[in-house]
Amino acid sequence: MTPIRTLALNDPGRLEQRSTRIVFFIAGVAVAAWAPLVPSAKARAGLDDGTLGLLLLSVGAGSIVAMPLAGALAARFGCRRVFIGSTILICVALPLLAIVFSVRLLVVALFGFGAGVGSIDCVMNIQAVIVERLSRRPMMSGFHGLFSVGGIIGAGGVSGLLSVGASPLVAMLCVATGIVGALMLLIGVAACGRVLSVARRSI
Description:
mainly alpha, Growth Hormone, Chain: A, 9 helices, disordered N terminus
């Protein structure tokens, strides 16, 4: 490890902190967006309360399966790549949750949604710990605060769209579009970070 590389690691810039905040915000929006769709999915699939409760276990099952894998992939390829892949998985699962009628397909969609949520939860906390330690000051509460803000916006936005007559599919497509936009912002911030890192090494 070169001295310049060591300096860069011990002095993380604002870009790393901002990108981590974006990650937590995206995660909050993605996790909360599904909640307002539960009554619609229940009616569409003709489920009773007990069956719905069992069905929702698919989300937890997907998370349990995905979390260890996400941690291993993050160690090998980095948190950013795993986060991007997990976010894309959620953006695919959310519209499916808005339209599927079959219980089997709903289980598959919920499992995929849970896998994406679990993976994001794993890698965003790994990223937060790294940034916090390198920044040498407490930042975790602020990161999780943005997760809560994202949750409020995700659930509130979907509820608002449904209340004005938007279909569940349109609401989910709007959420997915917003998440992709935030993801592009995250990629842009990360790209700026790489440019700055190259500049530092060239000095």
